[in-house]
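Many introductory courses stop at the sequence. We go one step further.
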Amino acid sequence: MNVVQSPEQALKQAGARVSTRAPKRDEQEAEPRKAVDRKPAPLKLDQLLLEDERAIPERRWVGGVGAFPRPRLACLAGPPGVSKTTLALGLSVALAAGLSYGGLVQPPGPCRVLFGGIEDEIEELRRRGAAVAGRLLDHPRQRATVNANLAVADMSDCVPLFQVDQDGRLTETAGLQRLRETIKQFRPDLVVLDPLIELHTAEESSNTLMRPVLRALRSMGVEFDCVFLLLHHETKAGEGTGLQRLRGAGAIGGAIRSLWSMRPMTAEEAKQFSIAEDMTDLYVKVETGKSQYSRRRPHAWFVAEEREIANGDVAHLLVPWTPPTFSITPEDLAKAVRALREGLHGEPCSTSPTADAAARVALEHAGIPRGACADVLKQLQATGEVQVRLWRDPADRKMRKRLWTAGNAFVGWVEEAGAGEARH
């Protein structure tokens, strides 16, 4: 016959001590300990104005004042095929050698640069690097300086660096840990990451999802005291300011502190600089789209060159280029007066660039370079040889503002400026 034991009997048989004391009332009614309420710590408040302004730390830059503020995020953007990677390589070589490059960077000395390429393999980066070095570096010692300060890394097997879910939760990948360790050991001043779209899995057009990525990169810049230069695409439309042209979320433009925007030469600019139409694709302009801590720099121009390297391959590079300036001679002024005296299409020339009888067109026909037309007109108006006067168009009897010159054959000039509404 099996005897059913109570739990207490079973424990006694096993040699365990069992308390038969009934719990006290205060033990029965005991409540869990409440967490101690702690007031949140207030923010640290600092004075804005110091007695000694010299106590404020100076801004630090990579590449000279106005280039890359340190430690911050910067961006080099442009449409596809405009040679962003090539320009970034030229910048990297120049910085590593301590050389200026097209007015974009003017470093006081060599800088350490880590170039992280994702879309181009190391061999291709070396081809372009060799082309740049052959053009910019004059002495073997400079090549040694570049090798000591510039390192390239194939990051194609490290991306994405950040996994971002639909709620904006960010996860750092093993690839990011490899990059962090590389930065920790190499200690670069500038880290180039090409391109931004490959670094993360976030929806690029979402501010909510892009902010964690940009925040993480910014925090890494502060942690390692370096600048991250992100190469990024612009919208297909390519309209608006440099910031407006950035593809994706507005958070990208908000997070960066320096933006350089690359633009191919337009047909208008080609005419202004007397560049043949079939050569315009070789020229690219770099605009300052954003400069948070300094005045925006003038546009910088570059022209593409091909260079044969020692292995027989041909690689291209971007070389700084200065648009031509025109010296105006007395002969130019005389030609301009004759052209304006004759007019265009049977009527006096107009100051409006869109008019059928635009003065600029007449001057170009006379052999005046487009880039010099405005200065020529300014000089002729300053001497009084050319004046803006009202002219009554015989076709519709309307008053128009046109350019008057002594000895012109046109009739219908009105001496009084208030003689009715004037049009171009």
